[in-house]
Design goal:
- The complex is a heterodimer.
- Chain A contains 14 helices and no strands.
- By secondary structure, chain A is mainly α.
- In chain B, strands 1-2 form a two-stranded antiparallel ribbon.
- The model of chain B has no long low-confidence stretch (mean pLDDT about 85).
- The chains are: A mainly alpha, B mainly alpha.
- The interface between A and B is large, with 46 and 43 residues.
Chain lengths: ~350, ~300
């Protein structure tokens, strides 16, 4: 018997990916759409028509599709910001706060170096965004590395502080002559370039490239191996001479830096200015997505796409059905519930 | 500063702090059983909207409070199904519940936007009738405010002086050992979540039926997260949560007064103070095992089946 199993041809990566990822998520999404359909029926809407609207508005036109990609961009980055520390069993709930601080740093750059050309200004803003996120993540990372306070609690607390700091800066110093809650529009050199006349910006490329780099890094680099060792058994890794504290500091701050980059992307690419409370839960959504797929890069892309599809479709649901926009959150939450609860027929590898 | 503004601060701090304290007390019970509910924001919103809807429909605010309370319990049971029965990650499930609450509360509350209600009646304590009317009027509270401090003591008694509370704390420290000593960790966690949810529901009712007296989407404005910070600040103890709630709500009240008196401190920075204090408290008590979180907070109980 044992010999026979050796002969069975191993499935290729693509085959396994199709079976595990696509099939699993397909079942789950059908289930959640059924549940939400019942709810729509209950409040007197036609579910078939609503779903047709959602899909034709998003997948049916190039513009709709590009809007899905636009709302996917920040959660790709924040998802990675959570996935990276999760590989060494660190829980980064603070992507929301890191995103805010990263955006604040980038905004400072955009307002200070207005005279520079784009090829200098954009990299400066990116570096500032990375730096801001990393600094904000340094607080929980340092407290964790000296064994004082759990990083989950501290990063969660700092989420509540960061938007208030932005409020202070924008309200007190940066606001434009017209508004008190936002800055003036950034100069053109401080805007991330967009593609094909849509709102899709360079941030998408950052997200995809970083996710691929993350996958390669975990699989093929020495540091990836050591991180997997820490994730498997931190004490054993430490006794084998892996510098645990350094890894905690560096990996957590890198996660924060990526979330900070997401903030820079949103300020520079999406809004083109900075406003108070500008994030609509991108950090939290990134956390959810990353945990749902177990920090798997392909899973992050698939799940971000699904979540963004639902959100973008919800925009149209309001126009055609006359229900409040936020009820799209119910469909989103049902999808998340179904994935979290992992019904037995869809149970694959973790 | 004169006495009147100070009393004014205290009065408005009590008004805004009551819902925080109820919510935090609920979360203390949840977390003592080892479950952290990040979805408090969603639970609050759904409870607040359904309580408000019932009050508009029936005209009876007490019925609204009752319904909000039950709905809070049910929302927590839904969360419990995910994290206890389906063993999902607690933080992720909590955030999913939060998004669910955003949507469901918008749906429930949508027909009632802008409607007015009979708010929870306010009355003053008989002792205060000797004071000048101006002062006494600052301390006319509704019944939920009068009950909140006794409620903190009831929760303390429940957790630290009853058999059930012992069970809750045992499960929160180590579910396997609690199981070995003859308790059912899953059942206890469900019970703790339900009772915690009832308290959260009362907090939500106070926001929509007694304090704001209206319904708007996202009206809780982050109170769920403040309550979680408050639980940490009070180091998982219901009595200390009273002081925490006063601190958090006083920071809000003080900034209103400062703005009026023209003192130039950014309200945003003042808002940060309670969080920074919580962080400092955490750092000070960090190494001390006796003061730290329930040991199996956030862990999944795998069970023996």
């Amino acid at each position: 018997m044992a010999q026979q199993t050796d002969i069975v041809p191993r499935k290729t990566i693509v085959q396994r990916w199709i079976e595990s990822t696509i099939a699993r998520y397909f079942y789950m999404i059908v289930l959640s759409f059924l549940l939400f359909g019942l709810l729509l029926l209950f409040i007197g809407k036609d579910p078939i028509q609503s779903y047709r609207d959602i899909f034709t508005s998003t997948l049916g036109s190039p513009y709709g599709f590009s809007e899905v990609i636009v709302s996917m961009t920040p959660v790709l980055l924040t998802g990675l910001a959570v996935a990276l520390p999760s590989k060494i069993m660190l829980i980064n709930v603070g992507a929301e706060g890191q995103l805010y601080i990263g955006a604040a740093f980038a905004t400072w750059g955009a307002l200070t170096f207005q005279a520079l050309p784009a090829w200098q200004l954009i990299p400066i803003m990116m570096l500032l965004g990375l730096l801001g996120g990393a600094l904000w993540a340094f607080i929980p990372a340092y407290l964790k590395s000296i064994g004082l306070v759990n990083e989950t609690i501290t990063s969660l607390l700092l989420n509540s502080v960061a938007p208030k700091i932005i409020g202070f800066l924008v309200f007190g110093f940066w606001h434009s002559a017209m508004d008190t809650n936002k800055t003036a529009r950034f100069v053109q050199a401080a805007r991330l370039p967009t593609f094909f006349g849509t709102r899709v910006n360079l941030g998408l490329i950052f997200g995809l490239v970083l996710l691929i780099a993350f996958w390669l890094f975990m699989k093929y680099s020495r540091w990836g191996l050591e991180m997997r060792a820490i994730g498997g058994n931190a004490q054993a890794a430490r006794r084998n001479g892996i510098p645990l504290k350094t890894y905690i500091l560096v990996v957590f701050c890198t996660g924060g830096a990526i979330a900070g980059l997401a903030g820079m992307v949103q300020a520079s690419g999406y809004y083109g200015l900075m406003l108070t409370n500008f994030s609509v839960g991108w950090g939290f959504m990134g956390f959810l997505i990353s945990w749902l797929v177990g920090g798997d890069p392909i899973g992050i892309i698939v799940m971000s796409f699904i979540v963004s599809l639902i959100y973008s479709g919800g925009n149209l649901l309001q126009i055609t059905s006359g229900v409040p926009y936020s009820i799209i959150n119910i469909l989103l939450a049902l999808t998340l519930f179904v994935v979290l609860a992992r019904p037995s027929f869809a149970k694959g590898r973790k | 500063m004169a006495l009147l503004p100070l009393l004014g601060i205290l009065s408005s701090a009590i008004f805004s702090g009551t819902s925080l304290l109820y919510t935090a007390l609920g979360e203390v019970i949840n977390e003592r059983s080892g479950i952290v509910n990040l979805g408090l924001e969603g639970v609050l919103l759904v409870s607040a909207s359904s309580g408000f809807a019932v009050t508009v429909r029936t005209g009876n605010p007490y019925l609204g409070v009752f319904v909000a309370c039950i709905v809070g319990g049910l929302m927590n049971l839904l969360f419990g199904f995910l994290v206890i029965t389906r063993k999902a990650n607690q933080l992720a499930s909590g955030l999913a519940v939060m998004f669910f609450g955003f949507g469901l509360s918008a749906l429930i509350g949508n027909p009632y936007v802008g409607k007015s209600i009979n708010a929870l009646p306010r009355f003053e304590l008989p002792i205060l009738s000797n004071f000048p009317a101006l002062y006494a009027s600052l301390f006319k509270f509704d019944v939920l405010i009068y009950l909140v401090i006794p409620m903190a003591f009831i929760v303390w008694w429940l957790l630290f002086r009853t058999r059930w509370g012992l069970g809750v704390r045992a499960v929160g420290e180590n579910a396997d050992i609690a199981f070995a000593s003859g308790r059912d960790p899953r059942l206890i966690r469900y019970q703790a979540l339900f009772i915690g949810g009832l308290l959260t529901g009362i907090g939500a009712a106070h926001i929509s039926i007694a304090y704001a007296m209206n319904w708007t989407e996202y009206m809780t404005g982050g109170r769920g997260f403040i309550a979680i910070a408050l639980v940490i600040f009070s180091r998982w103890h219901p009595i200390r949560a009273i002081a925490g709630a006063l601190l958090f709500s006083t920071a809000v009240a003080v900034q209103l007064v400062l703005q009026n008196s023209g003192i130039n401190i950014s309200p945003f920075l003042l808002d940060c103070v309670p969080y920074i204090l919580t962080l400092i408290v955490l750092i000070i008590w960090g190494g001390n095992r006796k003061q730290s979180a329930p040991a199996s907070l956030g862990r999944v109980y795998e069970g023996s089946d």
